[in-house]
Amino acid sequence: xxxxxxxxxxxxxxxxxxxxxxxxxxxxxxxxxxxxxxxxxxxxxxxxxxxxxxxxxxxxxxxxxxxxxxxxxxxxxxxxxxxxxxxxxxxxxxxxxxxxxxxxxxxxxxxxxxxxxxxxxxxxxxxxxxxxxxxxxxxxxxxxxxxxxxxxxxxxxxxxxxxxxxxxxxxxxxxxxxxxxxxxxxxxxxxxxxxxxxxxxxxxxxxxxxxxxxxxxxxxxxxxxxxxxxxxxxxxxxxxxxxxxxxxxxxxxxxxxxxxxxxxxxxxxxxxxxxxxxxxxxxxxxxxxxxxxxxxxxxxxxxxxxxxxxxxxxxxxxxxxxxxxxxxxxxxxxxxxxxxxxxxxxxxxxxxxxxxxxxxxxxxxxxxxxxxxxxxxxxxxxxxxxxxxxxxxxxxxxxxxxxxxxxxxxxxxxxxxxxxxxxxxxxxxxxxxxxxxxxxxxxxxxxxxxxxxxxxxxxxxxxxxxxxxxxxxxxxxxxxxxxxxxxxxxxxxxxxxxxxxxxxxxxxxxxxxxxxxxxxxxxxxxxxxxxxxxxxxxxxxxxxxxxxxxxxxxxxxxxxxxxxxxxxxxxxxxxxxxxxxxxxxxxxxxxxxxxxxxxxxxxxxxxxxxxxxxxxxxxxxxxxxxxxxxxxxxxxxxxxxxxxxxxxxxxxxxxxxxxxxxxxxxxxxxxxxxxxxxxxxxxxxxxxxxxxxxxxxxxxxxxxxxxxxxxxxxxxxxxxxxxxxxxxxxxxxxxxxxxxxxxxxxxx
Length: 748
Description:
Blueprint: H1 3-10, E1 17-18, E2 39-40, E3 52-56, H2 62-69, E4 73-77, H3 80-86, E5 92-95, E6 105-106, H4 109-117, E7 121-125, E8 127-130, E9 133-135, E10 139-140, E11 144-148, E12 162-163, E13 169-170, E14 173-175, E15 181-189, E16 205-211, E17 216-219, H5 234-248, E18 264-265, H6 277-291, H7 298-307, E19 312-314, E20 332-337, E21 343-346, H8 351-368, H9 371-387, H10 413-416, E22 418-420, H11 421-438, H12 444-455, E23 467-469, H13 470-476, H14 478-483, H15 491-508, H16 511-527, H17 538-555, H18 559-573, E24 618-620, H19 625-639, H20 642-658, E25 660-661, E26 675-677, E27 697-698, H21 699-715, H22 719-722, H23 729-739
Parallel strand pairs: 1-15, 2-4, 3-4, 3-5, 5-7, 6-8, 7-17
Antiparallel strand pairs: 8-9, 9-14, 10-13, 11-12, 11-15, 15-16, 16-17, 18-25, 19-21, 20-21, 20-27, 22-23, 24-26
């Protein structure tokens, strides 16, 4: 692109910047390879320009440490003037930032003259003044990412390759002295998985640029804290630094520049798994409910009350008191990573997350004999059913259409007014699981109330509105929803309620459970795939259908029902990789509720899938893989067919491999992030989802259900068989007479 055209689209006005395709496409030939120990420069020390890099930095720095760890030499100075004065002619220097993000470094004009006189090759980062370059005030640009905008990095990082710098602050350029400047990395809001599919963003801010005729390489931010701030993807940042280091000192051949990310998968793809890897993964997974510091303590409760409207907050400090379940559990970790690599928590409390977390801890009590986990689990369920607002107010009013239902959100009014059938279904399944594990009946009555509350707000054809709020329930009453003939071919919202209805029919013999569930399942299978409405992708819709189809085989084992299950699993597993990952797929955009961003400007503005186009090698542990894991397990148990159990085995091994390992961030260790790029074996995807992005961990949907299936595998049982303990006939007879009396049941 012509320089002036780029300036216009990038919003850089008349600055003399350009994207150059050829100026840096060839890499200078190296002369000398070195692997000597590093030293800190002292007075009188002799600096050999072909043996290492001159580095100016007074504080610990990721770049210096990594250079040393890879066996190369560093001549470190704390003072810029001394470093330039002692630098041999033609050598290379790295001027690194100590004061980021508040205080840019300043390089006096006299030193610039010395740099040019000695023909030094200099990389400077986060500099507020350098040469005749002028910079504005420090800025942030939420949702922005780095985009490769030249051939500087060669084939390792081609043009339009995307990278992320978490919590980035930068210095916008305001003017230059007219030197031709080549931008190697631009920064802005940009859509795509690994490539900027819509081209460079507008505006695009220079992030790394070169003044070629003056041997200056300038970064407007701090690139050298790539480990601490967890810049992603890590492999790309290895390539960035290999190229920068070679540019600064082309006399050194870099054979390697490797570092270990502070947050990484537990096992490499090719590593042999230990014989007890599933049990270890389960143990670490349930420990995360404690080490993740999501259980709310009384002190944390006071903090949350003050900042509840913000929705997110930094995690409690490691030394703070842990909650015991009596105040509930926070939703999880959102995908916002801070400068120190820590992450914000979503401090909202939800009914589904509470019950699902309790379920995982109940399994810990059962399998590992951890009595304290059992007590926390019980307190979480008591908090949900008897202490919180989830079943109070309108939900406890027999004259209200919301009677018996469980609010989606607990401590946020905007969420408390909502009921989603799929979330209520998982609340019920999780609670019944804990009841069976503890042999405890005190939560069964509320579960039956909820089951009947959902049934009586499900229409004649077996579909419930995807979301029903308190307003319509209060104004219209439950009978309005019970009598309607609506459809919603969206398994994401519908299918787990159908599974609950099939289980309800199995336990009570009440035919309305069967009729509405089977009819809706039949209509949904007949509508597949062209009329299906997908949320974040088609794969999650297929994954959600596995559970009700498996349980349909349980209650009515016919060739047709088995064929439905086989078709759904076959289409889902057509995208299962050899490593076990299940690749995401989007459907017809016209049927999509949460679509990939259709422009750079749309990136980060709404809920969105992790992929940009079909074929992106990513799996989703929030919406798809977690529920596929459960569905495949139940399908194998219902049918006895190896087709399902073999796929489940591959998926189990994959999940154990990609479980988070982190010594630096113990609050994340043992968790599972939403996204995983299984080709490059790293946590990466399009991070466009405005709520739950790549690096999020949802306490219930993700952590809860992955732990549960691992536990079921350890116990060699299925969810269906485990739930057999629950005897619901007495509760059903009581609540059915109140909520679905005979005189209102005619013609249903």
